Amino acid sequence: MDGFVGVFDSGVGGISVLRSLVAELPHEDFRFFGDSANAPYGEKTEDEVFALSRSIAERFLADGAKAIVIACNTATSVAAARLRAAHPAVPIVGIEPALKPAARALPHGRVLVMATEVTLRLEKYHELARAWGGECEVISVPCPGLAARIERGDLGAPDLSEMIRGFVGPYAGAVDAVVLGCTHYPFVRRQIADVLGPEARFFDGGAGTARQLRARLAEEGLLAREARPGHVTFASSLDTPEEIALYERFFSIPL
Question: Is 182 tagged catalytic?
């Protein structure tokens, strides 16, 4: 089926999800939009996040998108249900903190959830924690400013490592799993592991989102023909060559 899948995030973070989507669905065309001019969403009000998400989704649909992926935990929590209600004929797939697979893998473990303040504050996250926390201990750690810092690039800089140490340093050697509850955070997985130690297992929602998109496209008869290679294009609300080059660089960073 012709048409593209629109993927959006507040900035570069959703590129970690895009990579899972491309790996799962290599024959699909993807258009990624990063709203870097308004990043990060995790530090905005819910009304602001919804308005921004709706505007991007409606632009995708006007351009002929056959499906939309909300590659942002905060935007998914705030906007996914309302966008699905407004556009019931369109598959709209979101992402959420990967607490479910972490709890299944380590039902008696200590699970540290790193996320934005908005994600951790919303009832959707608390429902997820109640449903899948089970007998494991869930430790929620808000990380204000981390997504914005990752957005700037230069991921090997000492100031970024120090910021991460400030958030998770108290749990070094004391957790069994880390849930990366913001799509920016997989890009600093190595720096987080350096602080927490080699025993912690990492979970993020990208692969699950990709599987869900495949299932929804199949249900609706929208899967691309496998005889053709897919394409990825990038756009940003910071419409500069430098920003697009940054997106392309993040698309190739080893995770």
Answer: yes
Same domain, 54 and 128: no
Residues 108 and 198 reside in one and the same domain: yes
How far apart (Å, rounded) are the C-alpha atoms in residues 162 and 160? Answer: 5
Q: Which of 128, 182, 238, 246 is catalytic?
A: 182
- So what's the pLDDT on residue 20? 96
Of 72, 80, 95, 147, which is the active-site residue?
72
Report the number of distinct structural domains present in the chain: 2
3-state secondary structure of 136: coil
CATH number assigned to the domain comprising residue 123: 3.40.50.1860
Alpha-carbon distance of 28 to 195, in angstroms, equals 37
Parent domain of 189: 99-203
**Strand, helix or coil for residue 34:** strand
143, 186: one domain: yes
- What would the mean pLDDT of 242-250 be, rounded to a whole number? 95
% helix / strand / coil in the chain, to the nearest 5? 50, 15, 30
Report the candidate in 56, 65, 83 with the shortest Cα–Cα distance to residue 29.
65
**Residue 136: active-site member:** no
Query: Is there a single domain that holds both residue 91 and residue 69?
Result: yes
Q: At 200, which amino acid appears?
A: A
Count other Cβ atoms within 10 Å, centred on residue 174: 14
| pLDDT tens track for 26-55 | 999 999 999 999 988 878 899 999 999 999
Q: Which one of 188, 203, 218 terminates a domain?
A: 203
Alpha-carbon dihedral sign for residues 118, 19, 167, 96: positive
The reply to whether 197 and 225 lie within a common domain is no
pTM of the model: 0.91
Q: How many residues does the chain have?
A: 255
Q: Look at residue 14 and tell me whether its pLDDT is greater than 70.
A: yes
